Amino acid sequence: MTASCTNPFLLAFPTTPIERIHDTRSDYEILAGAAAALADEIDEPRMRAYWKGVLDGDPTPYLQRVLSGSNATRGVLFDDLHESCKDGVPLLMNARTYPRHAGWEQRQEDKPWYTPTGRLEFYRPEPEWQAAGESLPVWREPVDATFYEPNAILANRRHPSINPRKPEDYGVPESQLDVETRQYRNVVRTWQELKLSKHPLTEKDPAYRFVFQTPKYRWGAHSTAVDSDWIAMLFGPFGDPYRRDPRTPWTGEAYAELGPGDAKELGVSDGDYIWLDADPEDRPYRGASSDDEYYDVARVMMRVRTYSGMPRGVIRTWFNMYAATPGTVQAQKDDPGGPAQNPATGYVALFRHGSHQSGTRAYLRPTQMTDSMTRKAYFGQQIGTGFEADVHSPSGAPKEGFVKVEKAEDGAPDGGKWRPVELGLRPEAPSDAMKAYLAGEFVSRTRKEA
Amino acid sequence: MAKVRNWQLGRDMEYPYVADRPAKQFTMIMDTNKCIACQSCTIACKSTWTWGKGQEFMLWNNIETKPYGFYPTGWDVNVLELLGEQEWDGDDVYTGQTVFEAAPAGERVLGWAPAEEDWSHPNIGEDEPTGSADETTYIPDKPHSLMWMYYLQRICNHCTYPACVAACPREAIYKRPEDGIVLVDQTRCRGYQECLTACPYKKTMFNLETRVSEKCIGCYPKLEQGLQTQCTTACIGRLRLTNYLSAPDEVDPRKPADFLVHVRMIALPLYPQLGLEPNVYYIPPVHVPTKYLTQMFGPGVERAVEMYRNAKDDPELLGLLMLFGSTERIWHTWDVSDGVARAYDEDGEEVVAVPLREPTFTRPFEFATEVAGEPVTGFRHNT
Amino acid sequence: MAQAKITRKDALLYGGAAAGGFVVGGAAVTAVAVAVENEKAPVAGAPIVARYVDGDLPETDPGSDAWGDAQPTLVALAAQQIAQPFLEETLVTELDVRALHNGSSVALLLEWDDDSVDDLDGIRRYHDAVAVQLPTAPGAAPVLTMGAPGIPVHILQWRATWQRDIDSGGKTGVDQIYPEVIHDVMPDDVLPPRTAQLYWVAREAGNPLAQVRRTTPVEEVVAEGFGSVTHLPKQTASGHGVNEDGRWRVVVAVPSARTGVGAPLEPGSSWPAAFAVWLGSEENRGGRKHIANWQTLVLEAKA
């Protein structure tokens, strides 16, 4: 069963008539089975009763509870939904309007917003927000992914409402810029000040000069961009089901995108392999050393795609790719030319080494962790304060970093440039034919006289 | 060599066989402007037709980003380079050479054989724009002559004058007389791969296990049941229309493909200058430099782009475009009235109706209903 | 050496004439003078004399001592440029041919230089092959166009791919072409075998080229002109090929009776015979091949 607040359709995937393959279980059957075993072990029958529907082979009651508990689906009988979906017809989500317009009741009627005043509020008076200097919407530099002083609040002049508790107020010197401290560090800078500052890593080593971003691939949710061989083959420019380049981990491969100008400065060509390193203080892991057993599992190596759409100083890698594991790295050592596939589990990586998360980490933001914030409840139209999962809580998505890059290997398996570069079909070194093609010069029109 | 009429070129041309147009011609219309390159079509096609061992690389349908995407690598750059610079006389007559007319001695078609590595990297160039963002990502000019890209939907063109048919020394490739679909006779092909060299669109492929050529079959088992192809019905952008095109001297403006191709001339053939009279038609992207588009779709691109930009004020055209992707069935005529477009089958029965503008419905705040005999009350809320 | 080509003009002019004289298929041979020596150098232009052997022929043994008794004939090869598509360049110029027969079968040993063994079919990957062409009916040799409408020719073609099919038990596909291929799930992983096979359409449709399980590396076909090769429903040819030291040695054998195909290859008769060689590494396939003009095959009378 699936639905979302933005999709007008409520769907159930009809029960398959096909028997389950091999000796496999659904997640909920595993949970119920474990609960039943524990119930017997500790003589607690409620643990079995809790999963009665699953253990009886009918999960419908749980699905019905979800439908009955949600505003937009209350009134729907699961069996009706299931029957309808068997015919390929979903039901509609019963939001107030179709299509759903967010905030419709507040804009069209007199329903309050989920704030203490019931109005839209653009000033947060809670002490935690005042201490953070974020009572008004302000711009903070990223904690890591910036060329300048990280996490500084950018404000052009002293504002009575932007007066945070400074590092010294917490007993921390302002010069302390380590990655742990700076995630909750409140300093205000003007642009004149900020633009002269540098990221502390750049100060130490000028090779650290790239903002590294790992957004979700546009067709991926979680790992769905890469969860079958065909999809991995279509995931970016390095797909090949035949693995003609035997270094390739699977039918496709992870890559980092650099602007052509940056690539040229780094001496890196389209299709080359690179090593990418973030702050050695905590990445790829705390206390990492190049002679550690797992260092080459954790440190990321990727192909490069030179991408004309990347701004200077920015590197992008997609978020949705299976990471290397000890098993996948060992597999490629044991069987040179083989895939990055753990023979024990079948797990296959899209990285030879590391992952996109080798260069990123999560940060905690004080304003996401208050006990005083008034917010809507996760379910229904209730209002409350403080922690509420997915509503007011830290979202520790590790998405960005600040990195350096070095070339690891040539793009072609036997050395030299990646074949499409050699063919003159890449922006890096277009052939005369490619230039003519881009300019549309293979066809001309002679205008007839009127 | 016979003289055949190629209406896309506005002239007669040389072809190894005499013209024999099918009773009706399978066609697909693609609205390039709606494509997001999600490859749903590609996977729908692959999971239906090319799952077999030996077909791993094989995508009868593929989406490639233009200008840096190719499947196989460099396909159109290579054939254009081989043919050299060519000329259209105004909008009507192609005065250059076709791949048949430019064939070298000893060959029936001017072609090139992709290297086996060219079939790797099927999604090379994905989302890659021209130009460079090194200095700025702000692009004030329109169309974006500095940075642009778009998606090209590619299946076999089921050409009126197929180069694969021309080149096959065994006459193992044929065009079905009933619907113009081009098929490789799987019992007759002996795997010489002459079609791979000849087809400028590179849409015949070699099966590595059965050692013969295979290609897009236009989902003919579906067509025979009155259904549109897998790539059409899987398209979430609703940008495709599977239908039939009349011969140019039998145009019926009530038929959707005839209307788009011959009446409004908003849908254009892919590389018409090659001379195959391809039967997949593209509504060109509105944001791409004319010179590049003319190279790809012929001299009618400015008119087509203008027509498309005007579609919002053109209910007949808008309604037809809205009916794309609205039904799995192949429909034959349509009309638009009271803000609703309706498609009809050959007997004039309505197949599907689509509003030109999505209406908004408002439900009451409080509701009371009964579910399985139990009263259920509650309220509807958007936020 | 100078570029050798056989053009359409050559074929039309000389199609019925073999090197060294006019050959009439099926003609009785009264006497053929052949020097019988132990070490025989190939002789250009000489008739190919199939010595009579009392007993079994080495039909699948190119290394058999029995071949030592047969006199090799040097047959000149040239790029096919009669029908499109043409072969551009001649890259193998000589085929050595010798023959034996035992009254019930005829076997030929065909040898040519090729230091590249090409025995897998892939994308732009073609196989080595050799073929023998014989008229089906007695009479003058047909034109050199693989027969003509109403005038079928009988062709025996050995393919390196088919040889490997047999030698390897059918391991001649993706796994051999691309050993590093990786799959999630293939039809035969999850479907009943009969259903899974449907994904190999040409194989399922009975195309002889698409099979990998086979018993002979030699295909027997008839043709009535270029592009008209037709697989015979009853396959009777046998053979075997090996490549050693950069040279293919291939035996092609066929029963003399030629039941349902053509006139029998009677002892004491003489036949026009033409040949073709394909170099896979040079992208030879189909009409892009090396061909020889009609030669004379003489079947020695029984002792």
Tell me about this structure.
The complex is a heterotrimer of chains A (450), B (383) and C (303). With 450 residues, chain A is an alpha+beta fold. Chain A has helices spanning 27-42, 45-49, 52-55, 60-69, 78-86, 104-108, 127-132, 191-194, 200-204, 229-234, 260-266, 295-298, 326-334, 419-422, 432-439, and strands at residues 9-10, 91-92, 97-98, 139-140, 153-154, 188-189, 210-213, 255-258, 273-277, 300-306, 314-317, 374-376, 383-385, 400-409, 443-446. Chain A starts with 8 loop residues before the first strand and ends with a strand. Chain B is of the alpha+beta class and 383 residues long. Helices cover 19% and strands 23% of the residues of chain B. Chain B has ten helices and 20 strands. In chain B, the strands form eight sheets. In chain B, strands 12-3-14-13 form a four-stranded mixed sheet. In chain B, a hairpin with a 5-residue loop joins strand 16 (340-344) and strand 17. The longest helix of chain B is centred in the N-terminal third of the chain and has 10 residues, at 40-49. Chain C has 303 residues and is mainly β. Chain C has six helices and 21 strands. Chain C has helices at residues 8-14, 160-168, 174-177, 187-190, 193-196, 201-204, and strands spanning 5-7, 17-18, 21-22, 24-25, 27-28, 43-44, 48-52, 73-76, 78-81, 94-101, 105-113, 129-135, 139-140, 153-159, 218-223, 230-231, 238-244, 247-255, 269-278, 290-291, 295-299. Chains in contact: A-B, A-C, B-C. The interface between A and B is large, with 67 and 76 residues.
